[in-house]
């Protein structure tokens, strides 16, 4: 049931990503709001079934994307599994966990996008792609991850307050 | 009754004095005396009046402040609403200006039929240059239809759903458009890139290409109609050893600020892939 609650949120995030964030190019890089927000939700101690949310987001982005092979689905699914796996192990330093997961998720996504586009659409120059698109995107995602974590944590604490023993 | 009755004499004296004073007053002889007499009275009256009004203000002021505050809040609300209206009207004016420009463009090419569409999104991947518009197959949009603005070529319809379509921009790395230079008539192709920069390729070495040369669609390949403005040559690189010249171009369309586009609906793109050996 809790997984179903993520559907409207993920749809809203995808809409914001395509209609607002995608128009804000910074040195050809782009913030992945969906990824960062889902990671921030995922590392919240009381979140559940976050892998399904990642799968849904990847699926929706795959529908929108013109690239075949549904490339967003794979990095999103792997990031979701990583979130599920690591949050029980690095739970004492959530900000570090947030930064690590954002970094790994962004790298996987950029790599998947590059490889898929390279073999299916256009042969992108590697260094240009790395320096002008991938690195700015990863940097922006990491920069946004900290405030995103703080906001989501605040909302999460408000919506589902911890039980006092 | 006696005229020299003392009582009658007192009454007569009083009457004479009153009449005399009246006559003196009317004639103005007593004005200085009245001024001197009334000045302290007026001063006292003014002092009392000022204090009374001050006291009245003191007693009634809280009510006035409350009403003023309420009125102020009402006016602030009104100003806020009017500001919102102004912003809305400015936005509508901007849209109207864009639509007028598109209409002018449509009138210059009456042979084409257009559908105006709003841009509602862009592709979330930074590697790709695609936009999403708010019209789809329900409004007659089909795969492959060319998309333009009043400034020139935008791209082509890449995917269609019932209510929306995805447009591949000519700046996309996978986009290839056959063009010709307006001055020389030389044909070449343009290709997009991840940075949005557009490269000219297949330009023969013997052709003189200069900065500022106008670039139009050639119509070759059947993907786009001919003679649509694409942009201008920006820089030319000529190497002796290579077969072709290289050049970059400045597109005539500002792709970062696309809000409304026109889809040419009566152009049928040709699929020549089966003919390519």
Tell me about this structure.
The complex is a heterodimer of chains A (165) and B (277). Chain A is mainly alpha-helical and 165 residues long. Chain A has six helices and no strands. Chain B folds into two domains: 40-108; 114-267, Beta Barrel (Thrombin, subunit H), CATH 2.40.10.350. In chain B, the strands form two sheets. Chain B has a six-stranded antiparallel β-barrel. Chain B has a six-stranded antiparallel beta barrel with strand order 6-7-8-11-10-9. Chain B is rod-shaped, with a radius of gyration of 44 Å. The A-B interface holds A 14-15, 17-19, 21-23, 25, 28-30, 32, 34, 61, 64-67, 72, 113-114, 117, 121-122, 124-125, 128-129, 132-133, 137 and B 120-128, 130, 132, 158-159, 166, 168, 172-174, 193-196, 256.
Task: Summarize the entry for a quick read.
The complex is a heterodimer of chains A (165) and B (277). By secondary structure, chain A is mainly alpha-helical. Chain A has helices at 2-19, 33-42, 50-64, 73-86, 94-120, 126-159.
Largest sheet of chain A, in brief, is: none
CATH class of the largest domain in chain B: Mainly Beta
Low-confidence stretches of chain B: none
**Oligomer category:** heterodimer
What is the rounded Rg of chain B?
44 Å
Number of strands of chain B: 12
Instruction: Give helix and strand order of chain A, one letter per element, not per position.
Output: HHHHHH
**Mean pLDDT score of chain B:** 83
N-end to C-end Cα span of chain A: 26 Å
Strand content of chain A: under 5%
- List the domain count of chain A as a whole number: 1
Q: Structural class of the helices, strands and pairings of chain A?
A: mainly alpha
Which architecture of the largest domain in chain B would the CATH scheme give at its second level? Beta Barrel
- What is the count of helical runs of chain B? 2
The CATH superfamily of the largest domain in chain B bears the name: Rod shape-determining protein MreC, domain 2
